[in-house]
């Protein structure tokens, strides 16, 4: 008997129970993997692959290689980090941010993904990522996220996996927020047609330098022009020093 015929003969209540049991198993597996990642400073690609499976969105989820690259980049940056498009990558950013004291801001336009990612962050008590509801809006020649007021004025790292190309794509990142970015941009799905256009257009219009990391789902490392990078980094360091000095001055035990 054909498998499809067998599935049709299974009563709907039984199917529902099976799906619920499978979902519960994957949630437990995800919880265990998050605990494992929090305990392991350098997780293996196999662990990230298991995490992708447990997350349950393998067709659209970040690859294990991309997740490992994100984790390594967060470990090496001072922050803040900007993420475009939330999901499993948000969990990885939050885990590494918790470990190394790096704050991140994640922009999400889709209410379903916003709710799911927010629930997972809350379930695992991960607080270093601020997940922001950012509907898409027109900027004239292109559309992109609505920029919330609470975003900081500089970012040392950007994780770019949204918005989806079939809605408006990722081009708007640099026209809208390019003057706040002084560090590396990790762009997922680098060899798809839309992302290839984004990379070449950013290179021509904004002078970014790109390298493609090979793999099953290649991603790109992009860097802003070196002079803009240095200027923004210097300004960010000055602001950070001032902020730390102001915080010390506000402490009750400050000498003054």
Characterization of this structure:
By secondary structure, the protein is of the alpha/beta class. The chain has one domain: 3-Layer(aba) Sandwich (Rossmann fold), CATH 3.40.50.150. The protein contains 9 helices and 9 strands. The protein has a 7-stranded mixed beta sheet, sandwiched between helices. It has a two-stranded antiparallel sheet with strand order 4-5. α2 packs antiparallel against α3, α3 packs across α4 (64-76) and α4 runs parallel beside α5. The chain is globular. Residues 13-22 have low confidence and may be disordered.
- Give the end-to-end Cα distance, rounded to a whole number of Å: 85 Å
Helix content: 40-55%
The largest pleated sheet is described as: 7 strands, mixed
| Rg, Å, rounded | 20 Å
Secondary-structure element series: HHHHEHEHEEEEHEHEEH
Kindly give the count of domains. Answer: 1
Quick one: overall form?
Answer: globular
Going by CATH, what is the homologous superfamily? Answer: Vaccinia Virus protein VP39
User: Ranges with pLDDT <50 over ≥5 residues?
Assistant: 13-22
Enumerate the strands of the largest sheet in spatial order, edge to edge or round the barrel: 3-2-1-6-7-9-8
Strand percent estimate: 15-25%
Mean pLDDT: 81
The CATH C-level name is: Alpha Beta
What's the assembly state of these chains?
Answer: single chain
Q: How many distinct helices?
A: 9
How many β-strands, per DSSP?
9
Quickly give the CATH architecture.
3-Layer(aba) Sandwich
- Content-based structural category: alpha/beta
